[in-house]
Write a structure and sequence with these properties.
single chain; alpha+beta
Length: about 325
């Protein structure tokens, strides 16, 4: 909860004020500063503090688009509490359209970081030190990587009842209960007793309007549920219906047995039975084509949209019933 005086990156934020700050903690070898814009909006009334992040992986553009829309439409301005938005956490990865930080590391694998570690580790340290203590809740937006298109879903820790309740409020069709990755932002926030909803939707280097709409609507529902602002009219305009979620506790990848050209034949979100044809892999010359069959019943929650796959690549991610 908020107090009378709140400092973000050394700047005092008074009631009813908004400000854009820059997290500036390092320079590249060219002496170029790594500055990450942080948009803070504080209401006149006290309430919870929500952190909204995207672009921890610089090529996951759809998450960045969702946070951009939240700010552009002024949805990040609460009537109670405070909203902190970091639309592009990994600015230099975004500029280079790469997943990694400039030092080649995955930023989401170095939390909580260190003040004397790698460049990515130092950056993670300052987010945890400067931002994390201020917040109560976090929505972290991601997409699938390397051509893998995720159906909109929320990922939470198994056994976390409050996060499960918030995930249901967010309103995606699927909620994945999975242990957090080691040294991820979600793991670190969990250890600090902050509630995190990790949104996955779409694929890297792509913007999908349906995914964006689901991500925006979910954030509005969560803010409304937390008593930060009434978004009834906005949600009606978005025409985004809240869905009774399917809780997924186990899932597995169906992997390519052959290298070749991939031809998916099922749709995202469809239910499949064991033995159903999910797609096929062919050679480019017309001599070879083999069907890919479901190994177990479940729902297709991710499809690899790369036209060419190698033997062993994950091509369909299916929940296990």
């Amino acid at each position: 909860m908020q107090s009378e005086k709140i400092e973000v990156l050394g700047h005092a934020i008074s009631n009813g004020k908004g400000v854009q700050l820059n997290l500036d903690i390092a320079k590249l070898h060219t002496r170029t500063k790594i500055q990450v814009p942080i948009i803070v909006e504080r209401a006149k009334k006290d309430g919870p503090t929500l952190l909204i992040t995207a672009g921890i992986h610089g090529n996951e553009i759809n998450g960045i688009e969702i946070v951009r829309q939240l700010i552009s439409n002024k949805y990040n301005k609460p009537e109670c509490g405070m909203v902190i938005c970091i639309p592009v956490v990994n600015v230099f990865g975004f500029l280079n359209q790469k997943r990694q930080f400039p030092d080649g590391r995955d930023l989401n694998r170095v939390f909580p970081g260190s003040p004397r570690g790698s460049l990515a580790s130092r950056f993670a340290y300052h987010i945890v030190k400067e931002i994390a203590p201020l917040i109560d809740y976090c929505i972290d937006y991601h997409t699938g990587g390397d051509g893998r298109f995720n159906i909109p879903q929320i990922r939470i820790n198994e056994g976390d009842k409050e996060s499960l309740k918030l995930a249901k409020v967010f309103g995606t069709r699927f909620v994945i209960q999975r242990e957090h990755r080691d040294k991820s932002l979600r793991q670190t926030m969990h250890k600090l007793n902050k509630k995190v909803l990790l949104f996955e939707g779409g694929k890297s280097l792509d913007i999908d309007n349906k995914v964006s709409r689901a991500g925006v609507a979910g954030a509005l529902r969560v803010m409304q549920h937390l008593g930060m602002r009434d978004f009834s009219e906005e949600l009606e305009a978005l025409e985004s219906k809240i869905m009774k979620p399917k809780i997924v506790q186990r899932s597995s990848w169906v992997r390519a047995k052959y290298s070749g050209m991939l031809h998916p034949k099922v749709r995202l979100g469809s239910k499949v039975n064991k033995g159903d044809v999910l797609g096929s892999i062919s050679d480019p010359f017309g001599y070879f084509e083999r069907n890919i069959k479901a190994l177990f019943p479940g729902y297709v929650i991710c499809i690899n949209q790369s036209p060419i796959v190698n033997q062993g690549d994950g091509i369909f991610h299916v929940s296990r019933e």
